[in-house]
Design a protein that fits this description.
Blueprint (H helix, E strand, L loop, with lengths): L11 E4 L8 E8 L4 E4 L4 E10 L5 E9 L2 E2 L3 E4 L6 E2 L1 E10 L2 E10 L7
Antiparallel strand pairs: 1-2, 1-7, 2-3, 3-6, 4-5, 7-8, 9-10
Length: about 120
């Protein structure tokens, strides 16, 4: 069963530990099964790719530098109000629509209390 993660695609996060500690980037992808996230410009690795035929007949290969996934516990969402990393909590509000009560969940930064 995949874990529930508070970080979503498009969030701006800061790396807390590892070789890229302190750097920030935008989340490109979230992998819930392995509890990892792919962050733009963070954890860049060199991959050796084999030369292969493409649709147009050209051969591409060699060294490719690309981002690798990082564990979600090593990143925190950056609070837009003060540009510092913050934990996330969820605020549940009841809103009446079409005569019915509906629960609306909003992500809130713990540091400032403002919506993310």
């Amino acid at each position: 069963m995949a874990a529930r993660m508070k970080i979503k695609k498009g969030d701006t996060v800061q790396v807390l530990t590892g070789k890229d500690k302190g750097s920030t980037g935008k989340v490109i992808a979230v992998y819930r099964e392995t509890e990892r996230v792919l962050v733009e410009g963070v954890n860049r690795v060199t991959r050796h790719t084999k030369a292969g035929q493409t649709a147009r007949g050209s051969q591409t290969g060699g060294l490719v530098v690309q981002e690798a996934a990082i564990h979600v516990s090593n990143v925190q969402v950056v609070d837009p109000s003060d540009k510092k990393p913050t934990r996330i909590k969820t605020r549940v509000e009841t809103v009446e629509r079409d005569g019915r009560q509906k629960a609306v969940r909003t992500r809130v930064g713990v540091r400032s209390g403002k919506d993310l």
